[in-house]
Design brief:
- The structure holds 2 protein chains of 2 kinds.
- Chain A has one domain (17-72).
- Chain A contains 3 helices and 2 strands; from the N terminus they run E-E-H-H-H.
- By secondary structure, chain A is mainly alpha-helical.
- Chain A is elongated and about 45 Å long.
- Chain B has 3 domains: 23-165, 2-Layer Sandwich (Beta-Lactamase); 225-308, Orthogonal Bundle (Helix Hairpins); 314-484, Histidine kinase-like ATPase, C-terminal domain (Heat Shock Protein 90, 2-Layer Sandwich), CATH 3.30.565.10.
- In chain B, the strands form 3 sheets. Chain B has a 5-stranded antiparallel sheet with strand order 2-1-5-4-3, with helices on one face. A 5-stranded mixed sheet of chain B has the order 7-9-10-12-11. Chain B has a two-stranded antiparallel sheet with strand order 6-8.
- In chain B, helix 3 packs antiparallel against helix 4 and helix 4 runs parallel beside helix 8 (442-452).
- Classes of the chains: A mainly alpha, B alpha+beta.
- Chain A binds chain B through residues 1-6, 9-16, 19, 23, 26, 55-56, 59-60, 63-64, 66-67, 70, and chain B through 88-92, 94, 97, 110-114, 116-119, 124-134, 136, 140, 157.
- Strand 2 of chain A pairs parallel with strand 3 of chain B.
Chain lengths: 74, 490
């Protein structure tokens, strides 16, 4: 295994408010009436946290909401 | 001429550490083994935790890559882009890293901003830094080549694992430090214990070397191996002391007992040379001197014979034979001698008595006992020779089995308790026996023969007189080879 001596780390683009909002839109694209209360709550909490600058916890909630949606939506 | 070599003292030189010290080497070996064992053990723990975590990351990336290759083969770049987006959307662990670039190295899909410049080869594992929103982390990645110049980078953020690895590594390093300290402490204790034992032996042996034979190893009373060594060494020293005393005593006795007949022979010859009036007187003096010198020769022969018997070399001549005819041969001779001295000779012997030993030598021992009995018996006394088999007697080695008990009893002058204790010593003669002819080697020879047969010689008072008893273990049927069976009487 090689360790790359990189002076400039590569930026992870998914750690951003923009990706947060993208995930929020993905959830919105599902039928709003079909969203369970848990998914709705996770989406709202995740979006709020991202807007407050807490990107990582926001992303985790939004991703949980998407995972839950994928499980329940055919 | 060369100077005599001066022996250096064997005592340990003062000083905390001596590289040539056995105890230091022992402690170093102990410490090294302890550290090696601990490092080996901790290495297993390290590979079992950190190694397992790294292996799991690599396994996850490899599995992921196979699935994405299948997607590529079915849906091309578009299908792969959708799946990458899908995986990033559902990455609850927030550690997945993907990057798909085209042949112009332009971004197509994924969550990395650009292709890392350092990663120019495919199918190799790389660890590189990535910039997260909250910190700079480390990631493990692997690049794969796709058709049409596309390249795919799959990775995992290993910051959590790196943290765990650091904790485990730090813990194990501290454990190594503690183990090293324990090894040093243990080695020091071992060295101290070892030095204590060695010094104790060294001090004792040095004292003995300087002539103090009374010194002994201290016994702690803890009944451990050290005490066992000390007791064994002390027993060895006791035996050496006894042997040295014996050698000294025998040397003195030889000097004394040989000097008397030699001096007597010299005096007789000198007297004859100066005062003999005729050839007959001269011849008589020479014969007397020859008799005295014969006595010296017989003493020397007896001593050599005892030494030969004590060496155990005669044991190879042992056979199984009937003891009774052998005893009867001796009795025949001594019946006549007893009769000459006006004594009565009584025998209590069984019909047969199988015995394993040296026939001629045993006859010699019995003859010596009878000879003593005849010498010290008063006129009209009774000499009794008895032999019997004790069927379940306890032998000297602790086992039980048949024993021969042979005794010669007389009604003579007997011996005091103190004389009985010393009777088998070479040249020992009891005070009452000073005026009786003899060299003081008869019972020594008997003792040597009895010991050669693993038996014991005992003396007891017959009030009046003396009972000399020989107890010898008799062979069990299964212990004597059949080829050694013989009942011939020589």
């Amino acid at each position: 295994m090689r360790t790359v001596p990189s002076p400039k780390p590569v930026v992870v683009t998914s750690d951003s408010v923009a990706f947060c909002l993208q995930l929020s839109r993905v959830i919105e694209s599902y039928n709003a009436s079909a969203l369970s209360p848990t998914v709705s709550r996770l989406r709202e909490e995740g979006t709020d946290l991202c807007r407050q600058g807490l990107v990582r916890p926001g992303l985790i909630r939004l991703r949980r909401a998407i995972v839950s949606l994928k499980r329940t939506t055919p | 001429m060369s100077e005599p070599t001066a022996f250096a003292p064997a005592s340990p030189q003062p000083g905390f550490l001596r590289l040539r010290s056995v105890s230091l080497r022992f402690a170093l070996v102990y410490g090294t083994l302890f550290i090696c064992s601990a490092v080996l053990f901790l290495s297993f723990i390290w590979w079992g935790t950190v190694g397992l975590l790294e292996h799991r990351v690599e396994q996850a990336i490899t599995t992921d890559s196979r699935a994405l290759f299948n997607i590529w083969s079915e849906g091309g770049p578009t299908g792969l882009t959708m799946i990458i987006d899908d995986r990033l959307e559902q990455d609850v662990d927030d550690n997945a890293l993907y990057l798909l670039v085209n042949k112009d190295n332009k971004w197509v899909a994924g969550n990395l901003a650009e292709w890392p410049r350092q990663i120019i080869s495919n199918d190799h594992w790389f660890t590189m830094p990535v910039q997260r929103s909250y910190a700079q982390d480390m990631a493990k990645v692997r690049a794969y080549a796709l058709p049409d110049g596309y390249r795919l980078l799959i990775g995992r953020d290993i910051s959590g694992r790196t943290l765990l690895r650091k904790i485990v590594t730090d813990t194990l390093l501290w454990a190594c430090v503690m183990v090293t300290l324990l090894a040093i402490g243990g080695g020091w204790l071992i060295r101290r214990l070892f030095r204590h034992v060695i010094h104790s032996i060294s001090r004792t042996t040095q004292a003995i070397t300087h002539g103090d034979m009374s010194r002994r190893m201290p016994v702690q009373g803890s009944d451990d191996e050290l005490d066992e060594i000390a007791i064994t060494i002390n027993e060895m020293l006791e035996r050496i002391s006894r042997l040295m005393d014996g050698v000294r005593q025998v040397s003195n006795a030889i000097a004394h007992d040989l000097r008397t007949p030699i001096t007597r022979a010299r005096t007789q010859l000198e007297d004859a040379a100066l005062h003999a009036k005729n050839e007959d007187e001269l011849r008589a003096a020479i014969e007397q001197a020859v008799g005295n010198l014969d006595n010296v020769t017989s003493i020397c022969e007896a001593l050599l014979r005892i030494a030969q018997i004590e060496s155990g070399a005669r044991r190879s001549a042992f056979v199984l034979f009937d003891l009774i005819p052998a005893l009867q041969d001796v009795c025949e001779l001594y019946e006549a001698v007893a009769e000459d001295h006006g004594l009565r000779f009584v025998q209590h012997l069984p019909d047969h008595l199988p015995f394993f030993g040296d026939r001629a030598m045993f006859q010699q021992a019995v003859a010596n006992l009878l000879d003593n009995a005849v010498k010290f018996s008063p006129p009209h006394g009774i000499i009794t020779l008895s032999a019997e088999v004790l069927s379940t007697a306890r032998r000297s080695d602790g086992t039980r089995g048949k024993m021969l008990s042979l005794s010669v009893a007389d009604e003579g002058i007997g011996m005091s308790e103190a004389d009985m204790a010393r009777a088998s010593e070479r040249f020992f003669r009891a005070e009452q026996a000073r005026n009786t002819p003899g060299s003081g080697l008869g019972l020594s020879l008997v003792q040597a023969i009895v010991q050669l047969h693993d038996g014991q010689l005992q003396l007891a008072s017959n009030a009046p007189g003396l009972i000399t008893r020989i107890e010898i273990p008799l062979p069990d049927e299964e212990t004597v080879p059949a080829v050694q069976h013989t009942t011939t009487n020589h």
